[in-house]
């Protein structure tokens, strides 16, 4: 396919009403890529249609009682529940803190809903709630309300957690994929793919041992430092679907091209090695403590310098630029001087990563 | 056991640190009764300890940006997903709307997190989101943010939904179990137990056919009318564990006796009949559109008159009074002039009722 044909296809797809072709839910519908996007647009947006929901950002901005709040939710079904660097508990707290943070909010309060499988060890539940409490303390938030349901053996998988969060917007700024424009710079906050690869190794699906841990962490301070330092267009945490998915959504929403310089993308050798074994591209692998930010191109160096002063941003790097053409596409300039299109994720190479 | 011995046991239990005796989660931990209470106190409150969480109300009252908000969450795992009178979708929306309402808040915004099982029919998901949208429209709230995860076949049960809600407290009143005092009147908003019995019949576990539907409904208008009319101490929706559980929590929190007049409790004959077949007491059976309110005893008639003017309160009735002694107990005066103690629910006769 030529680039023109690709663009034409994208344009046609955009004009079409999104439609779920499958009659039954597949794992790909939960992967954060193309199928998830279609399901969200064709089923959820179709049903709930309203102006707060429709930006489909990580959180919803609410006007309540004169203040501006952000409200967000995420369900966590990660398997295994415990893995190097964390567990489903801190993953859930950090994930919700991060969803609030990347919307520009100061995270304040969380709720937690547990769906437990009959037979789940109470000691494991204690370990999970302990991690949640520690993560909440680290992020300066409180878990203020919750719920517990129990399902029969074989109707769950130990423990699923759904966290929701409320934060407050204290800055008078507007962040969003559609704010991005040509000339902007694309930054990632640190080495990518560590959470996803850690989970794959913890499942024993790779016959390797690696000195690697999940990157799960609360990024609210790092995001706040960035917002205080330079003009920022958008921030998104690169979870399911990884950096590639975030950049595709930016390219499509802002009708710009995102050109990524492959050698500039920070990836640890062990992650690269594991991805090669798995046949994965690290750009699609989930992080749980890394984000993508697009900033005014004139302030790219200042942005990176600011981020590197924070422990969670030590590996921050400019990885690409925003151009006008071809709109809607993410292009990767490889180490060998070639260029290829980085599409939205199809299928689910890494189910239940978060 | 004499009443004195019962009181002594309760007092001893109160002084003891709550402790989960079981090593593994059982269905009873999700039933809303004694085991759920112990799990919440011994594991969740122990881990998350903070002054907003500890009233353990249906929602948390937050001071945000000068306003007072209520924040709540509930996970729904009802089986079957579709039943006479509703489905998991409107159940989830109404449940969260009601949790906000009984805290005295005006419900505003909801989030929805879906955990779908691989193979779940997309048509069923559409039906559920359609019900959610209709219920949200009826209650005047918007679903503004969400999340979808997919788990492998055999790790879920079609569809679980976790809804969270944000509402605003517009009245300058304090509601709570501990506000109840001797002389107050206990009101239920309508016939009880219809949701629970409908679910049991829908499961085919009872070989009866009955003209009965779930009472799932949003009670925010009815609660608001009541709050505007009379001095109200507390309002709680009588879901898992039913009216008996709510009254036990009131009796213990306020250190009062709640004396229920059995013949005054509105129960439809078909519900009574089904409960007899199942060996259940309707006082423990879940409702999803009924609530318990305790009001100033001098205003009991006005309260009931106000409620009966609303379609969802047509069956409202005073069912009991609050007395000083014996503190911490719920007593039932039966039709035959006897008195028995109505304890917290033990075990789970009706798993996955909501």
From TrEMBL, chains A, B:
It comes from the Bacteria. Residues 181-326 form the PurM-like C-terminal domain. One of its GO terms (biological process) is protein maturation. Residues 58-168 form the PurM-like N-terminal domain. It holds the Pfam family AIRS. Belongs to the HypE family. This is Hydrogenase expression/formation protein HypE. It comes from Acrocarpospora pleiomorpha. The gene is hypE.
């Amino acid at each position: 396919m030529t680039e023109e044909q690709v663009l034409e296809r994208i344009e046609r797809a955009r004009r079409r009403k999104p439609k779920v072709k499958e009659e039954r839910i597949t794992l790909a519908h939960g992967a954060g890529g193309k199928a998830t996007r279609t399901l969200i647009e064709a089923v959820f947006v179709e049903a709930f249609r309203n102006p707060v929901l429709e930006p489909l950002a990580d959180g919803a901005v609410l006007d309540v009682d004169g203040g501006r709040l952000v409200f967000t939710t995420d369900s966590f079904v990660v398997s295994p529940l415990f893995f190097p660097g964390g567990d489903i508990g801190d993953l859930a707290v950090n994930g919700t803190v991060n969803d609030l943070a990347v919307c520009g909010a100061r995270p304040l309060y969380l709720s937690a809903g547990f769906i437990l499988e009959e037979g789940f060890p109470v000691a494991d539940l204690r370990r999970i709630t302990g991690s949640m409490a520690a993560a909440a303390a680290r992020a300066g938030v409180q878990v203020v309300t919750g719920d517990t349901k129990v399902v029969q053996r074989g109707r769950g998988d130990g423990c699923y957690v759904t966290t929701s969060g409320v934060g407050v917007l204290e800055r008078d700024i507007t962040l969003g994929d559609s704010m991005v424009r040509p000339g902007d710079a694309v930054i990632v906050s640190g080495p990518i793919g560590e959470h996803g690869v850690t989970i794959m190794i913890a499942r024993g699906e790779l016959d390797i041992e690696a000195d690697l841990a999940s990157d799960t962490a609360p990024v609210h301070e790092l995001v706040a430092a960035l917002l205080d330092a330079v003009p920022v267009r958008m921030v998104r945490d690169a979870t399911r679907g990884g950096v590639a998915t975030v950049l595709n959504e930016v390219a499509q929403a802002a009708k710009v091209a995102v050109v990524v310089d492959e050698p500039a993308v920070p990836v640890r050798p062990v992650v690269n090695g594991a991805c090669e074994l798995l046949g994965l591209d690290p750009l699609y692998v989930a992080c749980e403590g890394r984000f993508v930010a697009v900033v005014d191109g004139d302030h790219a160096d200042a942005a990176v310098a600011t981020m590197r002063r924070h422990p969670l941003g030590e590996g921050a790097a400019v990885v690409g630029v925003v151009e006008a053409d071809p709109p809607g596409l993410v292009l990767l300039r490889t180490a060998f001087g070639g260029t290829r299109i980085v599409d939205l994720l199809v299928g689910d190479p890494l189910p239940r990563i978060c």
